[in-house]
Input
Amino acid sequence: MHMHHGAPLTELNETAIIQWHAPTPPSYWSIDIEDRDPSLSRYPGLMALHVIFMTLAFFVALPVGIAMRAVKHSWHGLVVVAFYSLCALGCASGTLYTKLTPDMYQGSTHASHGYLVLILSLCLSAVDIARFFVRLYAFIKSRSKFALKPFWQNVVLGQNEAYEVTAKYSGLDVEEPSECDVAEMKPLGLPETRDPLHVRRNPPIASIQSQDLDDTNDDEISPWVNNSRSSQGAIHYTESSLSEGAVFEADSNSSQGSRHSDETLHDFKLSGLIEPQSPLVRISQGAFATLERALIFAAFGMTLSGIVVYTGGCRESYVNGCLAHLIKGGIFWCYGLVAFARYLGSFSDLGWAWNISPTGEHVSAEFVESLVIFLYGITNTWMERFGIRSGDPYTTKQVQHISIAVMFWFAGLVGMGIESRRVRRWLAAPAAAAVGPAKASEPPSYRGSFNPFPALVIGVTGAAMSAHAQTYLFQVQIHELWGRLLLAFSVLRCFTYFFVWLGPPRSILPSRPPTEALASFFLACGGLVFIFSTEEVTIAAMRKGRDDMMMFLNVAVAITCFAFCWAFCIIAMKGWLKSRSSPNFLLSAP
Output
């Protein structure tokens, strides 16, 4: 709607709404439920079946299948069959509904996009099928004596490395080490200490030798990493380390060689957790795992699309604002769920669970956040003028949104730069040159990544949107609500960095900062309220007398709590399955 520059209105001005927007046409919702004609046959039950089957497929069977694949559970194949069976039933009920119901949303792409998601899932399942036949061929070629149990374990489940003639499949699942797999990390050969807690958490770090600051060998191998290696090469650890990442790498001619070479992966006594892998294998593993988990978020996008089509929203002049709220709010919602999963311990093998990575160096979570922020900004900078005629002046609203996108763009670049080891060496060069590299030692804070720019960007966005001018008072209030929720995430993330900076992680186990649990909740809830704040939804709420802030907030909180509970159940189930498959690995007593 046209930007309102006066005081926000408390009553709807239907004349002004008609001036800027065409009347809302009938929708599937209106003919099925709201304004149903008893003389005509309608089939809302078929749509309900479509929703139920697709929800069970993508939000129940798929997450459970991913967890079972990660631990190579014997029921994984059964869950995959259940997933595709539910998808088939959902597609059948949806197709039957569209055949029996008039087309109430011209040009809908919900069905075509849904089939694309199904095709992607089939492509990923084809990897399972191909690997099964590869293992079967290797089993037959080996001419081993057939026995049901070995055949089931080796060929069907792929638990015998002798038949893994291609890239290791377990890596494709990016399996996070369960807490039941690892014990608390304690250095070997060191006596028990009774020093105060702050002394034990921040031990002195040995001086490290430096190579030329302009040496780029390490950056050619892995320029963007979460530094988490021990600089105390003489001390070995059972299942973790102090993991002091050095800015100045050890001399390549020393007895230890480059700390970032494949050979030094075994400086840590993490038997079975660290294996050298070629870059191609690691890329394929990351791509498979990313695409597999992206199916769940794609299903969330299809859920939003289905709601829009069924209720008849986001049409004509509403489409641009609607898409902006759905896409951006959806990103914050998914980002909040991922942050909560990090808090619970997901991605701990990458060092993203506020822990030390047990599998070597990886791209840091802060780098990924900064990359997403950069891509978001560089695309939205130009998209704000979509649908505007050439030569039209920039409106105040366009300047507001473009400036936010530019902030995302360049703050994301700064965030990525901070995560570069080469840039970190450059920033530390003046201090190191003053005393000599041989006398330079790293502070304990180098064990983690403390990059505030992702939190800064989201916090500033929330603060700015809290003051976003709107036509109606209810719209102002709901924008202020989700803006404050995003700002709360930013503040709590900064508290997380503060406390972790005081005591950097020394274990491969997830440290679970409590501030991060709250931050993820506020972020996800803020994203959901962002979605609710679309102009069409707020106007509809005012027309029906539902413009109540407490109702909107409570609904968002309830949905967020339900989603968090389900994520907790899936991650806990995965850990439980892992503990049952690895009974010999138990946690030491706290």
